[in-house]
Amino acid sequence: MSSKCRLCGDDRELRQSHIIPNFVIRWLKESGATPFLRGVDDPDTRIQDKKEKLLCSECEQRIGDWEQQFASRIFYPVIRQQKTDFEYDSWLKRFTISLSWRFLVSSFSAMDAWDSDEQTALREAEHHWRAILNGDQPLSAATRSHHLILLGETESVPSEAPEGWEFYSSRGIDASVVTVDDGIYIYSKFPQMFLLSCVDPPSVDGLGEARIEQTGTIETPQVVHSPWSKIPFRRAEIITENKASPREQEKIKQHIQEHPDSLVDSKTIETAVLNRHTAVEFTVSQPA
């Protein structure tokens, strides 16, 4: 049965699209003690089940090419601690735009929860990003800025880090519309990194070193000013407030008991052993 592709607009057979890219889900499942991945806002819903029929095969392939570039050139080298500097060209901005756009057009963006002005800004961003992804506008026409902030291991945790920060930083996945002061942004969290797309205003101060250009190099450590450095802390706090129900916790416990070898070999227990020794790699500082 054909439906309208959310990107190209043609009536075609649609594929099930992950909201969080599949390479992230796959790494978490392969390296974790339990394959049950749960979200921040709804911990009883498994993230790997969050798919929607959004794109036709052609558009899925186009976005998949940018995902593959990001996975091989940034995600896996960061996870494996193979590099500290990351060169890129246009694929990085296209990937980031596609990530934020796909979240916006999914049901998980909860567009109706925002006031009319915010909904207008979000819809304008979606329309603009869709035009760029379709090639109707050149990438140089992208007026909204996008940012990649890398997280990693350091000797101590900042004093303001909330409970559960180590796990959220190392293995957390998350996607949300967030507000900072009077602005609205798309926040996407992968293990050891997060991306931020500006909606309104179109650009911000304090994220210069993390800004994604047409071509460039992401160098670490990064200097990320407040309030941007506090966004992942705020999201991590939600984890402690929205814990899985007792029934779901029992499912996890039962799985680990039935598959004890998966716990011993997993990154989940490695993260737990780190205890309070994992922190943001970038420098948290106040703007001058």
Summed up:
This protein has 288 residues and is an alpha+beta fold. The chain has 9 helices and 11 strands. It has one domain (2-285).
Description:
There is one protein chain. With 288 residues, this protein is an alpha+beta fold. The chain has one domain (2-285). The chain is built from 9 helices and 11 strands. It has helices spanning 22-31, 57-79, 90-105, 116-134, 165-171, 231-241, 246-258, 260-264, 267-274; strands spanning 2-4, 11-18, 51-56, 85-88, 146-150, 174-180, 183-190, 193-200, 216-219, 223-225, 283-285. It has a 4-stranded antiparallel β-sheet, with helices on both faces. The chain is globular. It starts with a strand and ends with a strand. Mean pLDDT is 80; it is low at 34-38 and 251-288.
SSE inventory with pairings:
Layout: E1 2-4, E2 11-18, H1 22-31, E3 51-56, H2 57-79, E4 85-88, H3 90-105, H4 116-134, E5 146-150, H5 165-171, E6 174-180, E7 183-190, E8 193-200, E9 216-219, E10 223-225, H6 231-241, H7 246-258, H8 260-264, H9 267-274, E11 283-285
Parallel strand pairs: 10-11
Antiparallel strand pairs: 1-2, 2-3, 4-9, 5-8, 6-7, 7-8
Helix pairs in contact: 2-3, 3-4, 5-9
Protein name: HNH endonuclease
Which key phrases capture this entry?
288 residues; alpha+beta; 3-stranded antiparallel β-sheet; disordered C terminus
The percentage of residues in β strands lies in 15-25%
What is the share of helical residues? 25-40%
Largest sheet: 4 strands, antiparallel
Order of H and E elements = EEHEHEHHEHEEEEEHHHHE
General form: globular
The averaged pLDDT comes out at 80
- Spatial arrangement of strands, main beta sheet: 5-8-7-6
How many angstroms does the end-to-end distance come to?
Answer: 57 Å
The tally of domains stands at: 1
Please work out how many helical segments DSSP would assign.
9
Number of strands: 11
- Structural class comes to alpha+beta
Radius of gyration equals 19 Å
Low-confidence region ranges: 34-38, 251-288
